[in-house]
Design brief:
Elements (H helix, E strand, L loop, with lengths): L10 H25 L6 H12 L19 H14 L1 H20 L2 H12 L5 E4 L15 E5 L2 E12 L6 E9 L2 E8 L6 E4 L10 E12 L3 E2 L5 H37 L1 E2 L2 E2 L4 H29 L5 H25 L11 H10 L7 H13 L6
Parallel strand pairs: 1-4
Antiparallel strand pairs: 2-3, 3-7, 4-5, 5-8, 6-7, 9-10
The structure holds flavin-adenine dinucleotide.
Length: 385
């Protein structure tokens, strides 16, 4: 157990964290190791997400009235850290299912909630949330995918990219342009409103799905609109706030694993007549990694605590996301260095962690965008139009 966690969590919460940790160490990790880094088919991924739901992923922070457990965002952020420690892939799949759940709880009409939420929270269904497009990344307001009204239907055309869970998705919450200055979220059911999905191979995290999604005049009933027509941009920005804290914990969860692997290695490996842990430059690396990971966790727990308290925390969430994901890159890079030549081989997991961590500063707003948001919050002067 991480030192000092009892300052943030009560006994029941600590027990929940410990029992997830036990499942991840004893069951999930051996299964993941046996599977390797290849793409995980949907039924296998589903068996894991269903099991993880028993430990509160992604249902813990959702209200009991919606089928959630009514626990805190703080606890959920800690559960994501634990999952990322064992599997960055499963953590990103859970993060996106969690974002979709939050959107449905907050914005969806009752018939959509009843139909999708219980099974999503139980880990049976997969959701995708689509904002990014080939020409639309950091500038989310520029989304081009068009939904045109035809009677009581939307007709949707366009292309989305980088869509997490795309190949698994049972439904897809798509950000669509419904007017010149108007974005709207619309839910497409994979069976009823078919969209084409194509996986994107990446440097790492290929066990899970990141995809292109093609929409070609897909007809969707207007009753599948999520939130008010025209509220898509505002709702996307609110959604990012919660998602970012979790992306931060995803990052430092991977970093914590890199640290633990490095500590073991530095004690076991001897050079110049003593364990490399005894060489001051190696001790310094470990000290920096450990301190940065703890600092990242403190930023995330603060932001999640503010969400629990209903306080505005866009700046704090941006800090948590930026810092947690950037220290993932630096810590995993140092972990490779501490492992020497072994660090770049498949025998040691720091090689995989370094590739995975490199991805973390990109989704849900890049590091550069987080810094611009923090700057705007400090000065009131926006870098954006
Ligand atoms: C693994 C993964 C999963 C993802 N999952 C999803 C998902 O489920 N749904 C979804 O919609 N999207 C998803 N994304 C997309 C992600 O949100 C975008 O990649 C991200 O917002 C950046 O957009 P971009 O890649 O187009 O880069 P760009 O916006 O083109 O940025 C390129 C570079 O320019 C910088 N830059 C851009 N604007 C500015 C500025 N104003 N000032 C300074 N620098 C700037 C960026 O920081 C970056 O370094 C995912 C991405 C990845 C890698």
């Amino acid at each position: 157990m991480i030192g000092g966690l009892d300052i943030f969590f009560d006994k029941a919460e600590l027990a929940a964290i410990e029992s997830l940790r036990r499942y991840l160490d004893e069951q999930l990790e051996p299964e993941l190791a046996a599977h390797g880094e290849d793409f995980v088919p949907k039924d296998k991924m589903q068996s894991w997400t269903q099991k993880l739901a028993e430990f509160g992923l992604v249902n813990a922070p959702q209200p009991e009235s919606a089928g959630g457990l009514g626990l805190s965002w703080k606890l959920h952020v800690q559960l994501i850290e634990e999952l990322a420690y064992s599997s960055g892939d499963l953590a990103i799949a859970a993060l996106v299912n969690g974002s979709a759940a939050s959107m449905l709880v907050k914005l969806a009409p009752e018939h959509i909630k009843t139909r999708y939420l219980p099974r999503l929270l139980a880990g049976e269904l997969f959701a995708s949330v689509g904002i990014s497009e080939p020409d639309v990344g950091s500038d989310v307001a520029a989304a081009k995918t068009r939904a045109v009204r035809d009677g009581d239907h939307w007709v949707i055309s366009g292309e989305k990219t980088w869509i997490t869970n795309g190949e698994y998705s049972d439904f897809f919450i798509c950000t669509c342009r419904t007017g010149e200055n108007e974005l709207t979220h619309i839910l497409l059911d994979r069976n009823e409103h078919p969209y084409e999905v194509r996986g994107i191979p990446k440097i790492a995290l290929n066990r899970q799905s990141t995809s292109q999604v093609f929409l070609d005049d897909v007809r969707v009933p207007v009753e599948n609109t999520i939130g008010e027509i025209g509220s898509g941009l505002k709702n996307t920005l609110t959604l990012f706030e919660r998602a970012r804290v979790h992306v931060g914990s995803w990052g430092y969860g991977m970093a914590r694993r890199a640290l633990d692997e490095s500590i073991k290695y530095a004690i076991d490996r001897s050079q110049h007549g003593k364990p490399i842990a005894g060489h001051q430059l190696i001790a310094e690396k470990l000290a920096v990694m450990a301190t940065e990971i703890d600092a990242a966790r403190l930023l995330s727990l603060r932001a999640a605590g503010m969400i629990d308290a209903g306080q505005r925390c866009d700046k704090e969430c941006a800090m948590a996301k930026w810092y947690g994901t950037e220290i993932a890159v630096s810590a995993t890079r140092q972990a490779v260095q501490i492992h020497g030549g072994n660090g770049v081989t498949k025998e040691f997991i720091v090689e995989r962690l370094a590739r995975e961590a490199m991805i973390a500063p990109i989704p849900d707003g890049t590091t550069e965008i987080q810094k611009l948001l923090i700057g705007r919050s400090l000065t009131g002067v926006s870098a954006f139009r």
